[in-house]
Write a structure and sequence with these properties.
single chain; Rossmann fold; binds 1,4-dihydronicotinamide adenine dinucleotide; alpha/beta; four-stranded mixed beta sheet; binds oxaloacetate ion; about 300 residues
Length: about 300
């Protein structure tokens, strides 16, 4: 039913008329630091606010010496969260604990749910029009948590809340071209569903590439459990950070370009969909076209 649908997400407006402000929450972490570096290098970022409970003054001072235009500021501790987020256009959230071997993403829920809720509550107060990009796991649950906080404040706008599932398509392109050849940057693979194990559904049949059944089974499993591969390889020292920083920076860049008026930008994301909700599936990862048209609509690709 949802296969290869593109949700067109309109932006009612940007949060401010100043150079875009991007806030990273969890900026001193394994994802947060390389993500902040990539955002500092992005010419579309005007202001970069780095927030964490620890170490952000150092990360901020370090990045601020890079001669790109983004003005960097570090904010540390709960009493600085609101000032860090104030009037942000985009809030990227890689805050929270990562998995260790033997854990599922759901095992992170108990801790990360509260962290994400607190961040969303601050955003409601000081950056109600920000686009919120949720990286913290389990994404399948943390995105609805953010949405519920905005619903409670009666300012829920599904066009502004995104679960970042970009790493799934990044991995899918890599794994497919590893066995079939070709340029991974030019081999898109749609991945729909969610961001956890079997909820990650790669649409290999839509790549136009011929696969044997064995290849489909092996690739599907590797794409669904790519996160576990990294968790195991890191042996207790966390999960994917560098590839996730790349994926998060790519999604943020796409959103910034769309906010600046570029059209036809499509990224996958785990989002609320009215059409899905009618079928009992409120949140679903699918391709999302980012743009200025008002209202949320669906283009169904058969
Ligand atoms: N969506 C996706 O595809 C992916 C999601 N992740 C998730 O991203 C999250 C972060 O992963 P890592 O960066 O590796 O973890 P990490 O432990 O290296 O960094 C997390 C950072 O969050 C900070 N933090 C904790 N509570 C906070 C709060 N209340 N406010 C602000 N900052 C807070 C910590 O101080 C730390 O610096 C994890 O939940 C992980 O599962 C990881 C990879 C891919
Ligand atoms: O596997 C994890 O826990 C981190 C993650 O979401 C991923 O790498 O896709």
């Amino acid at each position: 039913m949802f296969a290869n649908r593109v949700i067109i997400r309109g932006f009612a407006s940007s949060a401010s008329s100043l150079a875009p402000k991007v806030a990273v929450v969890g900026a001193a972490g394994g994802i947060g630091q390389p993500l902040s570096l990539l955002l500092k290098l992005n010419p579309h970022v005007g202001r970069l606010a780095l927030y964490d409970l620890v170490n952000t003054p150092g990360v901020g001072a370090d990045l601020s010496h890079i001669n790109t235009q983004a003005v960097v500021k570090g904010y540390k501790g709960a009493d600085q969260l609101e000032v860090a987020l104030k009037d942000a256009d985009i809030i990227v959230v890689p805050a929270g604990v990562p998995r260790k071997p033997g854990m599922t993403r759901d095992d992170l829920f108990k801790i990360n749910a509260g962290i994400v809720k607190g961040i969303a509550e601050a955003a409601v107060k000081v950056a109600p029009k920000a686009h919120i990009l949720v990286i913290s796991n389990p994404v399948n649950s943390t995105v609805p948590i953010v949405a519920e906080v905005f619903k409670k404040a009666k300012i829920f706008d599904p066009r502004r809340i995104y679960g970042v599932t970009t790493l799934d398509v990044v991995r899918a392109s890599t794994f497919v071209t590893t066995i079939k050849g070709g340029n991974p940057t030019k081999t898109p693979v749609h991945v729909i569903g969610g961001h956890s194990g079997v909820t990650i559904i790669p649409l290999l049949s839509q790549t136009g590439i011929n696969f044997t059944k064995e290849e489909v089974d092996a690739l599907t499993h590797r794409i669904q459990f790519g996160g576990d591969e990294v968790v195991e390889a890191k042996g207790g020292l966390g999960s994917a950070t560098l590839s996730m920083a790349h994926a998060g920076a790519r999604f943020t860049d796409s959103l910034l370009r769309a906010l600046a008026g570029a059209e036809g930008i499509v990224e996958p994301s785990y989002v609320y969909s009215e059409v899905g909700a009618k079928h009992g599936v409120e949140y679903f990862a699918t391709n999302v076209e980012l743009g200025y048209s008002i209202g949320v609509s669906l283009r169904v690709c058969t």
